[in-house]
Amino acid sequence: MHLELQSELEAAFQRVLASGSYILGPEVEAFEAEFAAYCGARYCVGVGNGLDALQLILRGYGIGAGDEVIVPANTFIATWLAVSHAGAKPVPVEPLAATFNLDPQRIAAAITPRTKAIMAVHLYGQPADMDAINAVARQHGLKVIEDAAQAHGARYKGRRAGNLGNAAGFSFYPGKNLGALGDGGAITTNDAQLADQLRALRNYGSRTKYHHELKGFNSRLDELQAALLRVKLRHLDAWNAARQQLALAYLDGLAASGLVLPVVPPWASPVWHLFVVRTARRDALQQHLAQAGIGTLVHYPIPPHLQPAYADAGFQSGDFPIAEQLHREVLSLPMYPQLAPAALQRVIAMVTVIANKVKQSMTSSAVAKMRLQ
Ligand SMILES: *Cc1c(COP(=O)(O)O)cnc(C)c1O
């Protein structure tokens, strides 16, 4: 990906080097305008990383100690950590097994008088059911925050992630659909007051140099990363389109494999950050694929509520059975825009052969367990 863009990236580097301006200068300002326009949001505020983006949104809304935030039980732990670092309590809600995302029908039961917000994740690049989530939030007077760290460019009913709630946090970690060459993050929102607050919060709580209105943070997207991201943003739609082609080929090629394939609701245009299949024989499938030279990953092996980091919250194994089953069964197949169609066909052929082999050694109770509610 970066070799294809080498000359463009080097030109951006030279421009920043020569400018003498490395923090909060014209590149960050330009990237913020371009990324806001891309998402269809009014404002964008560049920050240090995706975790900070989410935490700063909560702080910008004054959400903290004594408050609760609804989070998916099935997500990368950063979603939860953002809530914890803001001083609030993450309250998990089960996903819909078919889409991996927050089940809107389960949210109301988790709301208490302390609930202030719902943090919805567009996991693996697939948008959550935002109309349903926004409807619950409206009924209970809650903010809706998108964790869009895996969903740059994804659309829900035609609208882009980053413009589907009150505010959205993005990560530009190198492996994301839009990645920097280091850490980076951003917040998009249509809320002018929040954007203004966030510009101060990311920069020591200061709007005027050496005047500090808030106990702010140092969490700024830097000029170099912003300049590199401006280059890569121009290619994002083409890369996402390539991912879409690969995903369609997977869905077609693996239809008879016996694996549980990702479901795309009619209102979703996912950007396939990951292509995730499910099987009760996940570990065997992964081992056999590794022996055949095909690398796969598990996103994620342990749900946040069972991580040692959340031992103090007192969750038990079995508290969120759908999320726990997903964590036992998911496997991410190779997916990146430069994956050649011929290589993809070899992966499909190998996955099909191995999936059949491991299925034959599967007990009937394991097959029954695969069928989620
Ligand atoms: C990557 C990621 C984050 C955190 O982003 P960083 O830039 O690594 O801090 C948050 N949420 C989700 C769902 C992610 O995938």
Report on this structure.
With 373 residues, this protein is of the alpha/beta class. 38% of the residues lie in helices and 15% in strands. The chain has 12 helices and 14 strands. The strands form 4 sheets. The chain has a 7-stranded mixed sheet, sandwiched between helices. A 3-stranded antiparallel sheet has the order 7-6-12, with no helix packed on it. Helix 4 (78-85) links the parallel strand 2 (68-72) and strand 3. Helix 1 (6-19) runs antiparallel to helix 7 (223-233) and helix 3 (50-60) crosses helix 6 (192-201). Bound molecules: pyridoxal-5'-phosphate.
Report the radius of gyration as a whole number of Å: 21 Å
Oligomeric state as shown: single chain
Q: What average pLDDT do the residues reach?
A: 95
Strand content: 15-25%
Low-confidence stretches: none
> What strand line-up does the widest sheet have?
1-9-8-5-4-2-3
**Overall body shape:** globular
Count of distinct strands: 14
Number of helices: 12
> Which ligands appear in the coordinates?
pyridoxal-5'-phosphate
How can the largest sheet be summarized? 7 strands, mixed
Secondary-structure-based class equals: alpha/beta
What is the terminal-to-terminal distance?
A: 40 Å
What level of helicity do the residues show? 25-40%
Order of helices and strands: HHEHEHEEHEEEEEHEEHHEEHHEHH
